[in-house]
């Protein structure tokens, strides 16, 4: 048998071949072409064996067979582009017209938000996307923050997470990463995004680019606490012009922020707004002259028509005397003043005594107090501070007010001005004794019937001042002394005894020099020698006849009676209209003049050796010479009158004559011929 040559392998599945060949090794079998019989798809070149006639065919999308990459007949897959309808077989969501290929049975189904599958535009199973309303929980997949229940889709892994103010993502209502918004307390720094001023640390969110910036009063934006652009508020000093926005009056240059539209306007007293310094709308304050009516706001009583601004609520009210407030002209709450009749109790305020129940308003603190006689105030029925009246026992001093003589310590209330006054008369030099005698005899004893009227002049001058001195009915004795002398104890009693029991008109005592403070001075010794000579020798001799020719002004007692009034009457008159006589006899020698008149009226006088007065002598030669010139000149002149008067006692006239002769006859005024006489003349007598 001849072997056959090798041939191309022939597919055993092919039918109607004349020869069936089996591949040599069986590793490769030829597929059948179209129209060739087949038993399955894999034997055909087209990979499609039509079952109806068992022939190889080219597959199409309309051959009613599942072929190519179709998932069901004529649909699904990539080649046909036709999506499969409901319940058709599928491999993925893109194969289905519903967009959902159910995984458990690989069939097209209608997707829902509760099918436990991640379908439609869900970002995770049954949540997220635009179709399902269910938000995804934490760690679920998401695309945007709106897909998440927490409102935050973390961008780095696209999962839902809980937002925080420190997660380094811009979430919640943050205007920038972890800052701004209403949730996070952290504010954004400059250049970070913001939506309003409160989002920024600087307090200023620039609207043009929605970024935080450092605010200023000249940045051209309304920021900080400005009420308008760069004006108003507490930070910027610039005030806003008219029509600019404002929050209060101080924001405006005009001083008036209109409340209806919060804009700066020109203020007025009839603009229907409370502005300027008004306390209420168009009333009160110092600018507008209109008073506020009842219940309107006020600052003080002057703002109200009623004159009363109630302090509790600062409203105008009608004042009363029982409103528990201090108003009207009350000095304290509901008391005092002229409007209310109620008086204020102790401790309450007052303006005058009439405001107080106690009738005493203390001026230092203007409070009512209980008056007393030592409170330093004039109250009760006192005529002056703590004196006078019927309540206080203290009497008033000079110049104090009084109502009657009994109110005064000196017993005299001057009727012209109702003040306590002591009678003070300014006297000429060396006229003390004459004036005192006139006052004693004429004025002070004006009520005595046994004393005649002396001088009309003095009565007119001071009678009205002393006519109310009734506490002493009369004066019986008058004692004379000097301011530089002091009297030995018991001397006054001895003088009065001598005047009373010897029936004399006047008595004098012994004068001695006060050596206590001036011992050893020449002029002290010389003066004391003169006193001893004049008193021990001359006055002791004159005392025998009760005709003392010198009654010293430092210790003399005179009896005030009718016979002595004649002496006083002559004493009050000037001797003659001669300057020499008036000066020598009257002005320089009041003591000698009085003695001469006593001798002239033949009134007895005496010397009381037990009554002693100590006086201070001159301290220098100048004072000694001045004193002696005055003493000796008037002594010589009055001695001359005594010698020439026939009414003088003869023995006394002789004594006076001898004394004059001793001084005048042997002396000369020529300093060259008789220097001793010249000095004595100058020292003792100078009639010019």
Task: Describe what this molecule looks like in 3D.
There is one protein chain. This protein is of the alpha+beta class and 688 residues long. It has 10 helices and 21 strands. Helix 7 packs parallel to helix 8. It is 20% helix and 9% strand. The chain has helices spanning 432-443, 456-466, 491-501, 522-543, 562-571, 579-587, 590-600, 621-644, 650-664, 675-684; strands at residues 49-50, 55-56, 101-102, 107-108, 153-154, 159-160, 205-206, 211-212, 257-258, 263-264, 309-310, 315-316, 361-362, 367-368, 413-414, 419-420, 477-480, 485-487, 506-513, 556-559, 605-615. The radius of gyration is 71 Å and the shape is rod-shaped.
Task: Please tally the helical runs, counting DSSP H or I stretches of 4 or more residues.
Answer: 10
In which order are the strands of the major sheet placed? 17-20-19-21-18
CATH architecture of the domain at 432-684: Alpha-Beta Complex
Give me the Rg, rounded: 71 Å
Q: Which CATH first-tier class of the domain at 432-684 would you pick?
A: Alpha Beta
- Low-pLDDT sequence parts: 1-28, 443-458, 678-688
Percent in strands: 5-15%
Oligomer: single chain
**Helix fraction by DSSP (H/I, runs of at least 4):** 10-25%
Distance between the termini: 222 Å
Q: What can be said about this structure in brief?
A:
With 688 residues, the chain is of the alpha+beta class. It has helices spanning 432-443, 456-466, 491-501, 522-543, 562-571, 579-587, 590-600, 621-644, 650-664, 675-684, and strands at residues 49-50, 55-56, 101-102, 107-108, 153-154, 159-160, 205-206, 211-212, 257-258, 263-264, 309-310, 315-316, 361-362, 367-368, 413-414, 419-420, 477-480, 485-487, 506-513, 556-559, 605-615. A hairpin with a 4-residue loop joins strand 15 (413-414) and strand 16 (419-420).
């Amino acid at each position: 048998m001849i072997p056959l040559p090798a041939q191309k392998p022939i597919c055993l599945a092919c039918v109607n071949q004349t020869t069936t060949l089996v591949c040599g090794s069986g590793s490769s079998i030829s597929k059948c072409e179209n129209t060739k019989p087949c038993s399955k798809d894999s034997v055909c070149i087209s990979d499609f064996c039509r079952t109806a006639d068992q022939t190889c065919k080219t597959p199409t999308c309309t051959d009613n067979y599942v072929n190519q990459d179709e998932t069901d007949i004529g649909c699904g897959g990539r080649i046909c582009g036709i999506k499969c309808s409901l319940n058709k077989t599928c491999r993925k969501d893109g194969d289905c017209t519903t967009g959902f290929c159910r995984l458990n049975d690989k069939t097209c189904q209608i997707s829902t938000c509760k099918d436990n599958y991640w379908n439609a535009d869900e970002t995770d199973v049954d949540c997220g996307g635009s179709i399902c309303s269910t938000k995804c929980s934490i760690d679920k997949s998401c695309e945007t923050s709106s897909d998440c229940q927490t409102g935050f889709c973390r961008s780095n892994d696209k999962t839902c997470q809980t937002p925080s103010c420190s997660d380094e993502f811009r979430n919640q209502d943050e205007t920038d990463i972890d800052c701004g918004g209403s949730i996070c307390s952290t504010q954004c720094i400059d250049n970070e995004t913001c939506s309003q001023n409160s989002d920024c640390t600087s307090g200023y969110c620039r609207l043009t680019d929605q970024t935080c910036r450092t605010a200023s009063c000249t940045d051209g934006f309304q920021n900080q606490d400005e009420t308008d652009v760069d004006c108003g508020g507490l930070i910027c000093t610039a005030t806003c012009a008219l029509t600019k926005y404002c929050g209060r009056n101080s924001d405006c240059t005009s001083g008036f922020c209109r409340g209806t539209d919060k804009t700066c306007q020109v203020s007025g007293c009839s603009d229907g707004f409370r502005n300027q310094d008004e306390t209420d709308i168009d009333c009160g304050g110092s600018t507008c002259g209109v008073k506020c009516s009842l219940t309107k706001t006020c600052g003080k009583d002057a703002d109200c028509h009623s004159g009363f601004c109630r302090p509790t609520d600062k409203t105008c009210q009608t004042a009363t005397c029982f409103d528990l407030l201090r108003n009207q002209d009350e000095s304290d709450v509901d008391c005092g003043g002229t409007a209310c009749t109620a008086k204020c109790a102790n401790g309450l305020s007052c303006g005058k005594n009439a405001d107080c129940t106690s009738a005493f308003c203390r001026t230092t603190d203007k409070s009512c107090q209980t008056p007393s006689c030592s409170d330093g105030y004039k109250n009760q029925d006192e005529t002056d501070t703590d004196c006078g009246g019927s309540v206080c026992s203290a009497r008033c001093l000079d110049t104090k007010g009084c109502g009657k003589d009994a109110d005064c310590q000196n017993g005299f209330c001057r009727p012209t001005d109702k003040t306590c006054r002591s009678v003070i008369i300014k006297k000429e030099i060396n006229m003390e004794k004459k004036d005192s005698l006139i006052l004693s005899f004429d004025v002070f004893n004006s009520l005595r019937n046994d004393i005649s009227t002396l001088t009309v002049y003095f009565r007119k001058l001071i009678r009205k001042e002393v006519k109310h001195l009734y506490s002493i009915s009369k004066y019986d004795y008058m004692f004379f002394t000097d301011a530089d002398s002091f009297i030995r104890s018991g001397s006054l009693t001895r003088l009065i005894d001598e005047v009373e029991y010897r029936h004399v008109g006047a008595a004098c005592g012994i004068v001695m020099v006060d050596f206590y403070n001036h011992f050893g001075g020449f002029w002290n010794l010389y003066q004391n020698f003169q006193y001893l000579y004049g008193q021990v020798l001359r006055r002791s001799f004159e005392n025998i006849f009760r005709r003392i020719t010198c009654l010293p002004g430092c210790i003399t007692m005179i009896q005030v009676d009718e016979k002595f009034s004649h002496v006083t009457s002559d004493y009050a008159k000037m001797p003659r209209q001669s300057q020499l006589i008036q000066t020598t006899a009257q002005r320089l020698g009041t003591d000698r003049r009085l003695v001469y008149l006593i001798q002239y009226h033949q009134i007895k006088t005496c010397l009381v050796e037990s009554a002693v007065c100590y006086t201070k002598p001159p301290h220098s030669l100048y004072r000694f010479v001045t004193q002696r010139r005055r003493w000796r000149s008037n002594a010589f002149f009055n001695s001359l009158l005594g010698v020439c008067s026939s009414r003088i006692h003869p023995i006394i006239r002789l004594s006076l004559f001898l004394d004059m002769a001793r001084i005048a006859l042997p002396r000369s005024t020529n300093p060259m011929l008789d220097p001793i006489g010249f000095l004595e003349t100058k020292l003792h007598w100078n009639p010019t």
